[in-house]
Design a protein that fits this description.
There is one protein chain. This protein is about 60% helix and about 0% strand. By secondary structure, the chain is mainly α. It has a domain of about 45 residues. The two termini are about 35 Å apart. The relative contact order is 0.07. Keywords: Membrane, Signal, Transmembrane, Transmembrane helix.
């Protein structure tokens, strides 16, 4: 829905230029396109989120050896 509104907004802005301040109009169009592009890029992670899981047993198997001190930090940094 928001993407449709954004496209309609750009259609209106591009088809109705301001003749008395063309440079300002063009600058505002360029800035609005930039902000719309950054907004669309910001939406991609929300469309397909990534859920990560920590497997403690795999970490232990990789970094802990018998008879040696653990290489894992004592504090979680998550």
């Amino acid at each position: 829905m928001r993407l449709i509104i954004l496209v309609l907004f750009f259609h209106y802005r591009v088809t109705n230029p301001v003749d008395s301040a063309y440079g300002l109009w063009l600058t505002s169009i360029i800035c609005e396109i930039w902000f719309a592009f950054s907004w669309v890029l910001d939406q991609f992670p929300k469309w397909s989120p990534i859920n990560r899981t920590t497997y403690i047993d795999r970490l232990s198997a990789r970094y802990e050896r018998e008879g040696e001190p653990s290489e894992l930090a004592a504090v979680d940094f998550f």
